[in-house]
Amino acid sequence: MPFHQRKDEPIVEFIFVGKVTFSSALDELRDFYACVPEGLLSNYGVLVELTSAKLEISYEEMREIVRCAQAWATRSRKIAICCESALNYGTARMFQSVHQNGANLVKISSNRAELIAWLKEEAKASSNISA
Length: 131
Hints:
This protein is α/β, with parallel strands linked by helices. It has one domain (3-130): Transcription Regulator spoIIAA. It contains 4 helices and 5 strands; from the N terminus they run E-E-H-E-H-E-H-E-H. The protein has helices at 22-35, 59-72, 86-99, 112-130, and strands at residues 3-5, 11-21, 45-56, 78-82, 105-109. Strand 4 (78-82), helix 3 and strand 5 (105-109) form a beta-alpha-beta unit.
């Protein structure tokens, strides 16, 4: 499985390596959300690591991924996408553009540390509100 919880941090990380197609991306998302209990991720952010991946996803396929992600991802508020190549950045921007009306905030960067800090901001603010 390409996902795990970062130790002692309110972040779930998806790590994709190699060729990533519509089917493989959708299968991984489906598998992940199928095993996560309802409400568990309400204060978690999602980090998608694409630095070792090659995305091969069309615009129409991305629209379907976003539709599914929006249905499943109501449990987390922020999605951070870490990528370096121009192709992956462009595909991530496509995700962000199609997703812009969703409940989740999406940030894209090649700076992993910046993305992790951004995800932690949400979690810290959420825990202060609920305390």
